[in-house]
Amino acid sequence: MRRRLQRGVVVGLVALLGGRSGAAGPLRVLPLGDSITEGVDAAGSYRSWLWRELEAAGVEADFVGTLSGVREGAAEGFDADHEGRWGWRTDQVAGIAERVVRETRPDVVLVHLGHNDLWQGEETGEVLADLEEVVEALRRGQPGITVVLSTLVPSAMEGLQGTAEVNAGLPGLAERLGVELADGAAGFDPSEMTVDGVHPNETGARHLAAAWNTALRPLVGPGTLPTVPDSPPNPVSLHARPGYRSEAALDGGLHADRLPLATHPSEAWKVTRQLLVSWPRTKLEAEGPGYLRFSEKRRWLGFVDDLELVLDEDSGAIDVRSRSRFGPWDLGANRRRVERLRRRLASFGMVEPG
After folding, report:
1. Does the domain made of 235-347 have the CATH classification 3.30.310?
2. DSSP string spanning 142-207?
3. pLDDT digits (tens, 9 = 90+) for 153-180
4. pTM tops 0.85, yes or no
């Protein structure tokens, strides 16, 4: 399934990704993994949300695989081809990887594997070795292919507590193999982002899609998303009056605050972006170095608010402003939005608790 968008973006992809020649065409993406790749349903499939993110950025993508759809229900509104093998271990996927890429000819492969290995009692070293086998099989099938590994999303299930150990070994493996690494685990809360402790719900699927998108962004370029100047707005300009930093809520319809960071600024910024992209009714409107602007449609009455964030690396903080588009009568929605963001980031150790 293909959707024709902006061919100019894809022309640049051919040179960046390598291994392709001739006329420009869609970016061929192979989602490879287990049940998390397949998805319980369309809302819980990261593929559906990644497809939408790429489309919104003007990237012409063709998802490929020998399978199509999701586990339950219809897969509508996105390209549903994939290679997500429900219940399979990493070594089983390694056994078919070479054949699959020969048949589907992807440019990029997105690999999320390891949960079933841990569930069946395999050790961390075995999982990492099997992931290396997957990468080698993919390269035998198509030399020069771009591979993106993802850290394993955390699980609340007792038999899957080894995900953290696997994730700790993935950066070194990715560097040694020369592959990209997406951090799907960063900011992923299985108590709120899964349907059963392991399989993502809509929030979790959108979070994982945002992680893939972050890893793909250097490969696909800026697309058509509105951008801001290289120098983001001064943090003070986000606030209602000079020198304002936090504490008191501002006039109705606007709330601004400063979130002191508890970890490295780049890590906190990455998790913040992924978290906000996963929020329901929230859309990324513009992005630039150290700057994000989202819109969020309120559940009731459908009013739209804007949320802006600026990373102040020198001070180790994120400055936030939430503003109503339709006047001051927000009933505290903007203050609650900022506080919700603070609590969620604090729960991941990204910012200091309020």
Report:
1. yes
2. STT-EEEEEPPPP--SGGGTTHHHHHHHHHHHHHHHT-EEE-TTTT--HHHHBSSSSSB-HHHHHH
3. 999 998 888 999 999 999 999 999 999 9
4. no
